[in-house]
Design a protein that fits this description.
With 119 residues, the protein is α+β, with helices and mostly antiparallel strands. Helices cover 30% and strands 39% of the residues.
Length: 119
């Protein structure tokens, strides 16, 4: 498998572990709707959270969170709207980013809550 794919999968697992340690309940992983994929859907304190995970081997080309562009945001909003409609949920929604950067033999995890406006 490609090295960047493996790094991405490692990052997603680190994000899941981080969220669980912070008291989040993981509801879905890699949930898809049309062209959109939500890396992690979690709940905490009566809130539904859509989490985009960005993992990079270094910051040479920018911080991981900077790669969540307007097109990706639009797709995430579309997908989460569908998720809520299909499940007939009445719950507050938040969009987060977890940015992970590899530092030699360890990883730095940053959690950006309510990372962008979605309406």
């Amino acid at each position: 498998m490609a090295e960047h794919y493996e790094l991405g999968k490692k990052g997603e697992q680190l994000a899941v572990n981080y969220l669980m340690n912070e008291g989040y309940k993981i509801v879905e992983r890699n949930w898809r709707f049309q062209k959109a994929e939500i890396d992690i859907i979690a709940t905490k304190e009566k809130m539904l959270i859509s989490v985009e995970v960005k993992t990079r081997s270094n910051n040479d080309y920018g911080n991981p969170q900077d790669f969540v562009n307007p097109k990706k945001i639009k797709l995430m909003v579309l997908a989460m709207n569908e998720y809520i409609l299909k499940r007939n949920l009445d719950i507050e929604l938040r969009f987060d980013i977890i940015a992970i950067t590899k530092n030699k033999s360890s990883f730095n995890v940053e959690h950006f809550q309510d990372a962008f406006l979605y309406f």
